[in-house]
Amino acid sequence: MGYESNDTIVLLADLGVTLLLFTIGLKLDVKTLLSKEIWAGATVHNLLSTAIFTVLLFGFKFLGISSLASMSFEQLVLLSFALSFSSTVFAVKTLQEKGEMNATYGTLAIGILVMQDIFAVVFLTASTGKIPEWYAIALFGLPLLRPLFYKLLDKVGHGEMLVLFGIFFALVVGAGLFQFVGVKPDLGALVLGMLLAGHKKASELSKSLFNLKELFLVCFFLNIGLSEQPTMTGFALAVLFLLLLPIKGVLYFAVLNKFKFRVRTSLLTSLSLFNFSEFGLIVGGLAFKLGWMEGDILVAIAIAVSISFVLAAPLNRKGHELYQRSSRWLKEHAAEKLHQRDQLINPGHAQVLILGMGRIGTGAYDELRSRYGKIALGIEVREEAAHKHRAEGRNVIAGDATDSDFWERILDTANVKLVLLAMPHHQGNQTALEQLQLKNFKGQIAAIAEYQDQLDNLLEEGADAAFNIYNEAGSGFARHVCDHLNPKFSSPN
To answer: Which helix (H) or strand (E) holds 78?
Structure first.
């Protein structure tokens, strides 16, 4: 229809990519990335998928696919590299909606995605071919300024100043500084994010920038779309790319299974990564800009990314059901050989199980202990949080309450009389409730939720009691005040 991209759209698109890399840096836990299953798993998958895709695309070229016929071997490798990535945005969104960001498979998926993002950033930096200025060596002194950065982050509070802090550090201190010394500015945003990742407000900072980043990324996708017109060739090539998607998923499963993760963990991680990536588009967009890739190829990647999201969404929603159906014929590792992060657990003789040891679960645990003694066992999906609770004297173990395998062990005792579903996300509580029903749990079940329809849903599905967390917080506050202040009020007239 005659619409074209312009300088404003390009600028906003670049801002979106820069903020994306900054927020990725904020989530980078170097200790997690040093885990062999993360760095080695991501590297092996990237190399294998790039190699296999290159061979298959070369075969398609040999068969006479017109869009691939003019591509050199190096261009096919670059295209395969772009298709080897999975979407960080898609995986984070689906994991958040299911409340499984901290599940074993969730942390695996995010770790692999972060490694893939690093691969992409290295490519984006190397592809410019620019030699940094001699004074770029001063960038190695940035970690020495981390205490100053932390103090500034402490001072900015929680409102609009936090957003401005994030924008300033991403675009000026990060991208601007690196560009000044002749290094790719995107890498600067990632590095500054990494320097702030250890701060207690890093997650809050990332969330405060989320909507702004998403808005600017719309401009990135818009700019890609306005670069070339969609053609029948582009659609046909996109369908061809989608034929590579099952291979990608199988490779994820095979690599993770080699690290002795359970079938469920390997399968759900693979489903979370079963898509093409917006970073593949970023790589493809740069290659197109540098003349390394034809417009039809870029259009095909864009269409393939979109369709892969449509295919992956229902698969992820039905992930637990797919596992239950496939677990019968997928071979499981022996329990004693399982990866340490994926070991099955023994609950002991607990009479009350509290699933989710956040603020609400912790409060419930402490109240039950003060009333009845040590009868409760807390279940926390994050290993570090479970360790902290144990250090504070609570009986807490790490485990994923949405894991059907978890329930095989957690309810092999008749002592459990009450289960409290205190996880922060409704879908996680709902999934745990479904697992309890499948195991014919005879005790009582109480759950929390934020909205009335969620409360009604939990009661309909078999919970004995469901509580609105906001209403209960108010009444709990009033009880706390009365108990501790013992106010004296006069009788109303």
So the answer is: helix 73-83
Give the residue among 314, 208, 215 at the shortest CA–CA distance from 15: 215
The CA-atom distances, in angstroms, between 88 and each of 23, 24, 274, 299, 490 are 11, 9, 11, 20, 59
Give bridge partners of residue 420 from the DSSP assignment: 354, 446
Residue with tokens 């289960």: 419
The rounded distance, in Å, linking the Cα atoms of 61 and 64 is 5
Backbone φ and ψ of 420, nearest 5°: -105, 120
pLDDT score, position 130: 62
CA separation, residue 94 to residues 66, 331, 346, 404 (Å): 36, 27, 30, 19
Residue 110's identity, in one-letter code, is I
Band of pLDDT at residue 99, cut at 50, 70 and 90: low
Ramachandran category for residue 451: left, alpha or beta (phi over 0 → left; psi -120 to 50 → alpha): beta
CB 187 within 8 A of CB 132: no
Interatomic CA distance for residues 296 and 308, integer angstroms: 18
**447 confidence band (pLDDT: 50, 70, 90):** very high
Phi, psi of 450 (to 5 degrees): -95, -30
Contact 360, 448 (CB under 8 A): yes
Give the whole-angstrom CA distance, residue 141 versus residue 256. Answer: 37
Burial group, residue 244, by CB count within 10 angstroms (0-12, 13-18, 19+) = buried
Structural tokens at position 309: 């999201």
Q: Give every strand in the sheet of 444-449, ordered side by side.
A: 396-398, 376-380, 352-355, 418-421, 444-449, 465-468
Tokens coding 459: 């009661």
Q: What is the DSSP letter of 381?
A: S
CA angle, 69 then 72 then 77, to 5°:
110
pLDDT at 102: 65
The reported pTM is 0.68
270 CB contacts (<8 Å, ≥6 apart)?
Answer: 249, 250, 252, 253, 256
pLDDT at 335: 61
- The reported pLDDT for the residue numbered 93 is 75
